[in-house]
Amino acid sequence: MEGKTSYSDLVIIGAGPAGLMAAAWASRQGINARIIDDNAERVQKGRADGLHVRTMEILDSFGLATSIEEKAYTLREICAWNPDAENDDRIRRTQRVLSREEELGRYHQLGIHQGFIEQKFNDLLEAEGRLSVERNIKTVSLDLDKASSTNQNAYPATLRIRRPDEACNRETPNGNGTNLSNSLESQLKGSANIWHEEIIKAKYLLGTDGAHSWTRRQVGLSMTGDRTEKHFGVIDIIPLSDFPDIRISCSIHSANHGSVMTFPREGRLVRFYVQLAETEGEEFDKTKITPDMIVQRASQILSPYKLDYDYCDWWSVYMVGQQYASTFDKHNRIFLAGDAVHTHSPSMGAGMNVSMQDTYNLGWKLGQVIKGIAQPHILGTYTAERRAVAAELMEMDQRMSKFYCEGPTSDAHDYSKFRDEFRTFLSGVGVEYGPNILVPPVRDDKEGAIAEPRNGSYETDQSKLYSEQSLATKIIVGQRLPSHQVMNHAEANIVHVHSVLKSDGRWRVLLLAGDIGQPHQMARLKTVCDYLASPSSFVHIYTPDGGKIDSVIEVLTIHAASRPEVEFSSLPEILRPFDPKLGYDYWKCFANNNHGEEGRFSDAYEEWGVDKNRGCIVVVRPDQHVSYLCELEEIEQVTQYFSQILVRQKLDN
Amino acid sequence: MEGKTSYSDLVIIGAGPAGLMAAAWASRQGINARIIDDNAERVQKGRADGLHVRTMEILDSFGLATSIEEKAYTLREICAWNPDAENDDRIRRTQRVLSREEELGRYHQLGIHQGFIEQKFNDLLEAEGRLSVERNIKTVSLDLDKASSTNQNAYPATLRIRRPDEACNRETPNGNGTNLSNSLESQLKGSANIWHEEIIKAKYLLGTDGAHSWTRRQVGLSMTGDRTEKHFGVIDIIPLSDFPDIRISCSIHSANHGSVMTFPREGRLVRFYVQLAETEGEEFDKTKITPDMIVQRASQILSPYKLDYDYCDWWSVYMVGQQYASTFDKHNRIFLAGDAVHTHSPSMGAGMNVSMQDTYNLGWKLGQVIKGIAQPHILGTYTAERRAVAAELMEMDQRMSKFYCEGPTSDAHDYSKFRDEFRTFLSGVGVEYGPNILVPPVRDDKEGAIAEPRNGSYETDQSKLYSEQSLATKIIVGQRLPSHQVMNHAEANIVHVHSVLKSDGRWRVLLLAGDIGQPHQMARLKTVCDYLASPSSFVHIYTPDGGKIDSVIEVLTIHAASRPEVEFSSLPEILRPFDPKLGYDYWKCFANNNHGEEGRFSDAYEEWGVDKNRGCIVVVRPDQHVSYLCELEEIEQVTQYFSQILVRQKLDN
């Protein structure tokens, strides 16, 4: 059957967690996108199973965190077991460590299988009704027309696919004298008749099709890195065991049989990563491994404790190695993410997290460029920002594999110390982007010294912007904004700041207005608002005609005055815009913890290292990363910041 | 068309919140039940909209709290406005009060419309797949055969219903020469053909069919109480207003125009309860009231602030009055709940809560009696327990109506003081049942003095049981068990006790084992476990053949030892039963906050007023209410307690 040609702004190949994250962004931003997958069903069992703090924050920004958290195993403690000094045929507990994830964010490390997360994304796509996963799609060819790549209106990628032709099957006439069922009939007709070819012309294309990525091969990117001959078995079972820490995540080293890492899961499942015996001289034959062999090996390592199982949910064998691609894009038109550009060992549960974070970084940029809100050159930050993360992951994984594969030595096996080195990065909250076009450098990077506090307006070279890190010592420019509790001014409800930074594609400008109960501080805020209300301010010139004033950049205010002393109606109206049908917007102004509320919730100014008598402006990207920090008086520089990133929709009046 | 006859263990008439709560219990307990409603759809707008702390705890026990909490308005602050002393044409804020619901439980008072809650129950029923609401059902007649009411196997209630005969409509032949649509064709045939009659013989029947209850009329119960001539308008609008507390729940009294109470809601809605002008001498004509009139009246009261609206979601007019029924059941076979047996003014949002709590009280009792687990005489506690609550509600509502309807006087208008009198009852956490067959009296009730602490075993009159309140001074016998955090011993996860007291119909025996790091306390626990393991203990004799040991009564342990000093494997096995396919049960043993964990979570023993060197046993009903408190040595008395309530399934060996 001859292929029809269709047009799409974005085609996503592969509907695993990374692809679905990109699809969620596409859905939220309302762009013309498709997501295809060659499997008939989502992953039902096994594969990835760990979620870290930052991933949960991201899932929460799409409204998906609560149902996942309710079902998952919560990791609160980690134990290390090592050979007993008096009898090295036995292991004994050498360390018990609190996970202390509450120091990093609102979530804990969780254990839940990948398929459940995919299902939540599928539910989100279905509820929003804009796109859903097209399954059973075979990719045939992919071409990129380099010449048209610089033309924003062009569709430089040509993807040829084959799909089961359901319409054709449905049209098979009844009553043709046979009693074959439709599907059997179709099979008998041969594949030529039941597959339908389609040519998709795409403005942008994303390959999230896994470690054996078809997309990567089409664009000719290669992976570089190391492979070892170390093999691990990974198995999900309901354990029958007297090991006392069977429901605790453990790092277990035996004297003579290798190591096991365990990770409990939802329901009664426990995952085991089991170091398999090396075959001297011979090549390791994966096909000879069975689940019984993996569990038996784990049982030897756990001695004197017993380990057996009746139910095995899933198992696999992997070879330790680290590989990643030299770039994550082709002409900023075809992008790759997740396992398609970085592979490593699974034993710290990083893979699914880093993969979803890849496309969480990319998805809003693609959406804004496709919609004509942002300039195409911001797409160049994707490879820069995410390849640096992949590089760090490779290094961490190498050291971790060494930790697990090498025999127990007193120094290397201080598990707590080892974990401390990586936990901030692994949790995802330590990831820092820039400096680049989206994240200007901080002043002390360039001038070697922290600038002195200034009075009045701030003079700078208009062609260069610098963030002033000292204004908010614990809001690290380039990292995600840490979430703390604040009080909705109009409702008195206590909310986390992240709960108002939903992933809907909008930029946020946070006015940390300070103690506006002080007349001079209120005067400073009013000056900011006078500027915002002027036709040349960023909220006007980057908002499309007919769009609401907060549709591209939302201004949020968090003041540090005593809330009872500041009436909602005394706040400048541009901070709480009035709509003739809906009234004022009561969900944009917040109060920091203050008089009479001490102890009820956290002091965000204190946690962020912001002076209540000074305040500052924080520009937050649509992915919650902090891009720019400046004084209240420097509000015009926020327009300058956006001038290099966004597309001007209106001329100054 | 002639009616078929069917049999059902329980028929629920009316699928509002009270009926759906009963249906949820029926679904959870797997009984043969039906729920019917004469409306074609659930409530879409208006009606009840307030949820209190205890109701949220109950909804959480069915897994429904989170999604409701995420969507609802959270009440954290309440303001009182009264005439300005200097100009009584104006109102001014006279009080700002924190709701302080966190002192009562894990939830706040919430504002969300009834239909959303009904939808969550419908979703639960659908997910569990046992029963769902049958709609468009008209009730025709109800008879109760008193003679067979004492026979447990009889179906004494006969309910005749009419339903749209979908099967009949579907069978209308095609191709009969007309091109009428099926539905039009059916209409033309007349109602005699499209309604199908059915006779349902029911063991038990529950009427949750509202203030104008058909069921109540059939059984001839009358309502007694007072009605006034005070009328209020109630309206849900998106307000256009400069009133600064428009998103705060307010009690507002004007000097000359009456009072308004406001309650913000999900989305942008705000509900107003507006006192309407009394018509001198004439009879009040409800039919003349319009939404504009209600809002205009509210606007007068709010002066000098403006109030207008573009969108009105729902409105109604009600007359203040309090009425309730003399009994809530007929021969313990037909029961009534919710508005069917108590009506009052809606302005404190109590109605839906008390109604759901009625059937939360009844549902597990019906389930256990129908399943032959409990003795039928426990059903007598329903009217006793819930009518007392209704009586208290009537009294509260009378005083509250007086507060709103009487003009502002300095004393009556200390809103904070007024609220404090009622908040524990209104929140639902102060509700206390007994003494009765399910809740034995506490010792000092009977003997006029608190018993002295005892050593060794406790001697008592075997025919009478008394709870020893002094063993847990803040676990009030008859009230719901307050929830505090404890740590899962095997997983180190911190959980609320309520999260392990799900509404699944099971009784719980909580062994507060004390500091089992002390040998003598561990010895006490082992004595308890030896008894539990014996064939005559309650976990054996009340469990049906083939049932799991925890299927009727679940034993949960919360010890107060340092968790690292007590290995999971050292806990007696009956506290963590082993299953040959599933392994040990890791979710029944918990540690109180202890060494190294201070500050991370609450100290439950301290909060409950339990001595860590002594401990106690707490028997908790399937509805989380505490029925019995005794010493660890008194474990045999727990069997005695159950002997008056449950049906013995096995003889002692």
Automatic annotation (TrEMBL), chains A, B:
Q: Which residues form the Phenol hydroxylase-like C-terminal dimerisation domain?
A: 431-649
Keyword tags:
FAD, Flavoprotein, Oxidoreductase
Q: Which species is this UniProt entry from?
A: Capronia coronata CBS 617.96
Query: Which lineage do the record's taxonomy fields give for this organism?
Result: Eukaryota, Fungi, Dikarya, Ascomycota, Pezizomycotina
Q: Which residues form the FAD-binding domain?
A: 9-395
Classification via Pfam families: FAD_binding_3, Phe_hydrox_dim
Q: Name one GO molecular function term.
A: FAD binding
- Determine if Flavoprotein is one of this entry's keywords: yes
- CDD domains linked: PHOX_C (cd02979)
The UniProt similarity line reads: Belongs to the PheA/TfdB FAD monooxygenase family.
Name assigned to this protein? Phenol 2-monooxygenase
Which InterPro entries does this UniProt record tie to the protein? FAD-bd (IPR002938), FAD/NAD-bd_sf (IPR036188), Phe_hydrox_C_dim_dom (IPR012941), PHOX_C_sf (IPR038220), RIFMO-like (IPR050641), Thioredoxin-like_sf (IPR036249)
Q: Does the keyword Oxidoreductase apply?
A: yes
Superkingdom to which the source organism belongs: Eukaryota
